[in-house]
């Protein structure tokens, strides 16, 4: 049984909108991950199958380890193809935003463009405190992934039979990546039931993890080694954190996606319940931060309160606009004086 946290009248309205062919833009968040790309491409294939004209427009590049996803070659990158992307957005009858809860999550430049659009927005997302920009909002923080919500969304429309191997492959990818391979809270019996159905459709559940996680370079492993060497443990505060400077990223020929998942290693130390990684981005003049926790400590709130970010209780992100040294000092102060 699927819990329906989407308003019946909204489902009816969307059914009506999708009853005739439409031009549809589909937007993931900036720095798209497996769930963002899986959900947008899963929706893309579903809409294509229903005679619409969908286009996925990502704010910036997606990581190489997602480039095998079916349809990824059709994705427009706003940062690189601004003019064409704006045109597609302006011509869209409908705009889906997936896996994020506030327009600023697409980043400056694209945010302002989206804010001007007159077409109705449909949000599907599992982050806390969704903003109110969408005409139709399917938001539910109890889900481990937007991809699992997309499975429900298609079911709500009475189109579950449309879910095939291609759509299923996209959905499986987001469920797998956002659940930490079925380990994080939010992974439910229903998650596994959905996955079981996808496997029955032919989704290659043992091949996809290889494509995602065993597909990186030697230099990426060396970068991981550096991050592990840099790991600092504040054992009195059950906290561990690590850093990667721009210089270190350059040394190990960093490409987008190379730092994905590194933050989690801190939690593998016995007794550590809070971990963070600080990654310098010289281009954007920020330190990008990922936070993870185990148990009750709410990193979403921590990221909101102190580092201009947000996310979920056990996985969140944020940023800092001061130097790495100052950022670390602030973080250590917070950890040692305020918490835990
Ligand atoms: P990650 O650390 O893997 O980049 O992100 C973990 C979670 O936090 C994801 O759900 C992601 O969408 C969210 N997140 C990451 N960075 C930010 C941020 O700067 N602002 C907000 N609001 N959420 C973020
Ligand atoms: Mn997600």
From TrEMBL:
<dbReference type="Pfam" id="PF01368">
    <property type="entry name" value="DHH"/>
</dbReference>
<feature type="domain" description="DDH">
    <location>
        <begin position="23"/>
        <end position="175"/>
    </location>
</feature>
<dbReference type="Pfam" id="PF02272">
    <property type="entry name" value="DHHA1"/>
</dbReference>
<dbReference type="InterPro" id="IPR001667">
    <property type="entry name" value="DDH_dom"/>
</dbReference>
<dbReference type="InterPro" id="IPR051319">
    <property type="entry name" value="Oligoribo/pAp-PDE_c-di-AMP_PDE"/>
</dbReference>
<dbReference type="GO" id="GO:0003676">
    <property type="term" value="F:nucleic acid binding"/>
</dbReference>
<dbReference type="InterPro" id="IPR003156">
    <property type="entry name" value="DHHA1_dom"/>
</dbReference>
<dbReference type="InterPro" id="IPR038763">
    <property type="entry name" value="DHH_sf"/>
</dbReference>
<feature type="domain" description="DHHA1">
    <location>
        <begin position="252"/>
        <end position="332"/>
    </location>
</feature>
<protein>
    <submittedName>
        <fullName>3-to-5 oligoribonuclease A</fullName>
    </submittedName>
</protein>
């Amino acid at each position: 049984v699927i819990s329906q946290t989407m308003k019946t009248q909204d489902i009816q309205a969307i059914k009506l909108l999708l009853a005739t062919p439409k031009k549809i833009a589909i937007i993931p968040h900036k720095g798209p991950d497996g769930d963002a790309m899986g959900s947008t491409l899963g929706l893309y294939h579903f809409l294509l199958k229903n005679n619409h004209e969908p286009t996925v427009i990502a704010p910036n590049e997606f990581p190489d380890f997602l480039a095998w996803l079916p349809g990824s070659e059709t994705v427009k990158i706003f940062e690189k193809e601004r003019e064409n992307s704006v045109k597609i957005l302006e011509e869209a009858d409908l705009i889906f935003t997936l896996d994020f809860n506030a327009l600023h999550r697409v980043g400056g430049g694209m945010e302002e463009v989206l804010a001007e659009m007159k077409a109705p927005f449909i949000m599907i997302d599992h982050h806390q405190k969704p903003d109110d920009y969408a005409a139709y909002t399917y938001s539910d923080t109890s889900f481990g992934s937007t991809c699992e919500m997309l499975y429900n969304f298609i079911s709500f429309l009475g189109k579950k039979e449309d879910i095939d191997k291609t759509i299923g492959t996209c959905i499986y990818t987001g469920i797998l990546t956002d659940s930490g391979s079925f380990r994080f809270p939010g992974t439910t019996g229903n998650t596994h039931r959905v996955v079981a159905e996808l496997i029955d459709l032919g989704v290659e559940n043992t091949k996809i993890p290889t494509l995602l996680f065993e597909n990186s370079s030697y230099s990426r492993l060396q970068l991981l080694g550096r991050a592990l060497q840099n790991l600092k443990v504040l054992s009195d505060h059950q906290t561990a954190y690590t850093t990667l400077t721009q210089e270190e990223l350059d040394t190990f020929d960093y490409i987008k996606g190379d730092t994905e998942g590194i933050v989690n290693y801190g939690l593998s130390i016995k007794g550590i319940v809070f971990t963070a990684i600080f990654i310098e981005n010289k281009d954007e003049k920020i330190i990008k931060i990922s936070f993870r926790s185990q148990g009750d400590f709410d990193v979403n709130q921590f990221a909101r309160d102190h580092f201009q970010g947000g996310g979920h209780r056990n996985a969140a992100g944020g940023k800092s606009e001061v130097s790495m040294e100052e950022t670390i000092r602030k973080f250590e102060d917070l950890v040692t004086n305020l918490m835990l």
